[in-house]
Amino acid sequence: MPKIANKTLVVYYSRTGTTRMLGEAIAKALKCDSEELIDKKSRKGILGWLKAGFEAGRKKLTKINPIKSNLDKYTLVLVGTPIWAANISPATRTFLAENKNKFKNVAFFATYGSDAGKCYENMEAVCRKKPVGCFGMTTKQVRSGDYGKGFRDYIKNLKA
Description:
single chain; alpha/beta; Rossmann fold; 6-stranded mixed β-sheet; 6 strands; globular
């Protein structure tokens, strides 16, 4: 069991389940805790999808349910987001902004249709912490279940 396992938390937001799949795969590989962010705003259906993209593009915050985990307990928090309109989700942005002074170390991961763009730089700017690692996958890759070498390297580097 890696030394970081009991001191690592994976936190993610997922509208469709794709980022949840990747987040849970990361938590399983690291043998650590995980928690899903819950946006208090409905993002369901076509209207929810349109609002989500608009708010992400405008770098808006939202209201999220408090997480159950105590961040003070963790030396590393991995934060995951879907990429909408080339930006991080409002729920992820809110979590990073509200907890920026609580993170000891962070790592990021993302799911997207084409590429992560400047997502990791944006996440770093919001939480004011340089990540110890970043990883992303397309929705198609995540849904295939074959995470590949990039995933294995990300996990290996986090365990080192």
